[in-house]
Amino acid sequence: MSSLLFVYGTLKRGCCNHHHLAGQRFLGPARTVPGYRLYDLGGYPGLVAVPEDRAGVVGEVWSVEPAALRELDLFEGVHEGLYRREPVPLLAPFATVKIDAYVSALPATGRREVGAEWIE
Question: In the chain, which stretches have pLDDT less than 70?
Answer without folding.
Answer: none
